[in-house]
Amino acid sequence: QVQLVESGGGLVQAGGSLRLSCAASGRAFSNYAMGWFRQAPGKERDFVAAMNWGGGNTNYADSVKGRFTISRDNAKNTVYLQMNSLKPEDTAVYYCAARLYTIEVADYEYIWWGQGTQVTVSS
Fold first, then answer.
1. pLDDT, tens digit, for every residue of 75-96?
2. pLDDT, position 2
3. Over the chain, what is the mean pLDDT?
4. What is the mean pLDDT of residues 54-58?
């Protein structure tokens, strides 16, 4: 199985930045899609960003375009979510997820999930 562990969350003021990390278990990930999702208290889990590990394609939710960037470090088997210009509405638990092949925006399409990391943006 694929094991995913998120880190890098914390408390930041509006306008600040955080970088989340998702450390993945060792294997060849070139045929995987990696996604970031988030869930605020009492709300549904929403798509944030995703990438094909080997294909170079990315996709972002409209709410984070221009502010968030998904990337990866092949040598470290780690996916990152760089979050800039953070807003209070970005406050949520952020989850890393993985699936085979293509990028999808629906959370149920992803098979493997990390435990989540809390991001809190104060106003």
1. 898 999 999 999 999 999 999 9
2. 84
3. 94
4. 85
- Do the beta carbons of residue 110 and residue 32 sit within 8 Å? no
Q: How far is CA 13 from CA 28, 33, 52, 60, 89, in A?
A: 37, 31, 31, 23, 12
Residue 97 DSSP SS3 = strand
CB of 20 within 8 A of CB of 9?
Answer: yes
Q: For residue 54, give every residue at least 6 positions away whose Cβ sits within 8 Å of its Cβ, in sequence order, or none.
A: 29, 30, 31
Which residue carries 């088997």 as its tokens?
77
* Residue 29 clears pLDDT 80, i.e. is over it: no
Token representation of residue 39: 């869930």
Inter-CA distances, 12 with 18, 29, 45, 83, Å: 8, 32, 21, 11
Give the CB-side neighbour count of residue 59, counting CA atoms within 13 A. Answer: 16
The C-alpha atoms of residue 103 and residue 50 are separated, in whole angstroms, by 6
